[in-house]
């Protein structure tokens, strides 16, 4: 096991390297690449990754605490049972990533590309998903209470059994959402009815 602390890297390529079981503390990585690197069970704490590429990277079992991944690419990455606790993920792209069993706690996932991801049965309470793209994703039986889903793309998203109570739905065309089996609060139900032209007193 290795530890990097208070290090800064810019335009460094870690592609294909064996970085398993490491600990990164308060490090900054600016436009670095980790493509096809082996980063299983790595731990990051208060790190910042800016426009980094994790294409095909093995991150399964990794743990991230209060770290930021801003505008990063996780295409085809393996994030199986990884954990993101209070992380900032704004603008990151998870196209084709394996996110089965991922654990998300709070944090900011605004503007992320989560198309086709499977987040069913996950506890996602309080996470900010402003303008996140969930097209064709599965959120079945997910706990989305108190999430900020403002202007999120939920077209063809599977929501059966999801709990949306207290979630912000501003800017969403509710007519495009299949709400069969979805738990909603009274205010959301009124918004949904009004979207279909009902007059609610």
Question: Could you explain the architecture of this structure?
Answer:
This protein has 1 helix and 10 strands, in the order ββββββββββα. The chain has 201 residues and is mainly beta. The chain folds into 2 domains: 1-83, Pectate Lyase C-like; 114-201, Pectate Lyase C-like (3 Solenoid). The strands form 2 sheets. The protein has a 6-stranded parallel sheet with strand order 1-3-5-7-9-10, with no helix packed on it. It has a 4-stranded parallel sheet with strand order 2-4-6-8, with no helix packed on it. The termini are far apart.
Gross geometry:
elongated
CATH class of the largest domain: Mainly Beta
Q: What percent of the residues sit in helical stretches (DSSP H or I)?
A: under 10%
The CATH architecture of the largest domain can be given as 3 Solenoid
- As laid out across the biggest beta sheet, the strand order is 1-3-5-7-9-10
Euclidean distance between termini CA atoms: 63 Å
- What pattern of helices and strands is seen along the backbone? EEEEEEEEEEH
Average pLDDT for all residues:
94
CATH superfamily of the largest domain: E3 ubiquitin-protein ligase SopA
Oligomer: single chain
Low-confidence spans: none
Estimated radius of gyration: 18 Å
Q: What's the β-strand tally?
A: 10
Q: Please identify the structural class as seen in this structure.
A: mainly beta
CATH topology of the largest domain: Pectate Lyase C-like
The count of domains is 2
């Amino acid at each position: 096991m290795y530890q990097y602390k208070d290090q800064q890297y810019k335009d460094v390529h870690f592609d294909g390297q064996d970085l398993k079981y490491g600990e990164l503390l308060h490090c900054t990585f600016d436009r670095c690449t980790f493509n096809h690197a082996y980063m299983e069970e790595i731990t990051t704490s208060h790190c910042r990754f800016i426009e980094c590429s994790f294409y095909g990277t093995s991150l399964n079992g990794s743990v991230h605490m209060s770290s930021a991944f801003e505008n990063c690419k996780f295409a085809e990455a393996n994030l199986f049972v990884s954990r993101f606790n209070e992380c900032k993920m704004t603008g990151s792209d998870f196209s084709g990533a394996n996110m089965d069993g991922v654990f998300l706690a709070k944090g900011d996932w605004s503007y992320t590309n989560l198309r086709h991801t499977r987040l069913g049965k996950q506890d996602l309470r309080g996470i900010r998903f402003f303008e996140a793209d969930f097209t064709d994703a599965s959120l079945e039986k997910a706990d989305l209470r108190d999430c900020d889903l403002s202007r999120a793309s939920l077209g063809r998203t599977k929501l059966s059994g999801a709990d949306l109570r207290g979630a912000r739905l501003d800017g969403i065309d509710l007519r495009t959402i299949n709400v069969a089996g979805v738990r909603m609060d009274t205010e959301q139900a009124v918004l949904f009815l009004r979207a279909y032209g009902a007059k609610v007193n």
